[in-house]
Specification:
Layout lengths: L2 H4 E5 L16 E5 L17 E5 L14 E4 L6 E3 L13 E6 L6 H8 L2 H11 L9 H5 L8 H48 L1
Antiparallel strand pairs: 1-6, 2-3, 4-5, 4-6
Length: 198
């Protein structure tokens, strides 16, 4: 089974076609999803979004909707699931928009699956010989997709969410340990220097 069998794939907006060059050309400003907003794990960071000054009012299909899966078209080809909070963001052309059209696939599962090692390796093979590795719609449409029961898809999603929480906790713990180590080492170093200065 291929991605095109379960979903529609299209590209985001080529921004240069609608960018207002002069202030008086700007009709409307939109929140823009950029590469900096996506983590390697396939999560949208709650950073501030760039603003895009458009010379025209844009069609709805250029904006994120709950249930969409976006995939970065350049390395590392990260996929991200769009939930309610991230809907309404302008999608640039360096993302593909994947909309599932089958009831037996969860979009969160598809995003997780597209971030798997197997898919990353498949995409790397398709980039072989390219100086600038980039993925196009045809490559995406022909990606093999593993069909598993909905119940197992849900289990994978829950395990993935727990895994992400655990990673974030480890990162926080590491930051706290770094602060602790700096505090202790500064105390030992500068405390010793003060003692010697007496």
């Amino acid at each position: 089974m291929k991605l095109e069998d379960i979903a529609n794939v299209k590209m985001g907006l080529v921004l240069s076609r609608k960018k207002a060059e002069m202030e008086d050309e700007e009709k409307v400003s939109y929140k823009l999803l950029t590469l900096k907003n996506i983590t390697e794990e396939g999560v949208i960071q709650d950073l501030s979004f760039d603003q895009f000054a458009s010379s025209d009012i844009l069609d709805n299909h250029y904006f994120t909707e709950k249930g969409d899966v976006l995939m970065r078209l350049s390395h590392p080809n990260t996929a991200v699931y769009i939930d309610e909070e991230q809907s309404g963001l302008l999608i640039p052309s360096y993302f593909a928009v994947i909309k599932i059209n089958q009831d037996d696939f969860l979009p969160e599962y598809l995003a997780w699956y597209l971030n798997s090692e197997e898919v990353k390796n498949e995409l790397e093979r398709s980039h072989a010989g390219s100086r600038i590795p980039s993925t196009n719609q045809n490559v995406l449409r022909n990606l093999p997709i593993a069909r598993i029961p909905l119940s197992k898809q849900q289990i994978l999603i829950e395990i993935w969410k727990l895994h992400l929480q655990e990673k974030n906790l480890f990162k926080q713990l590491l930051k706290e340990k770094e602060k602790w180590f700096k505090g202790v080492s500064d105390h030992i170093l500068f405390g010793t220097l003060k003692e010697e200065a007496k």
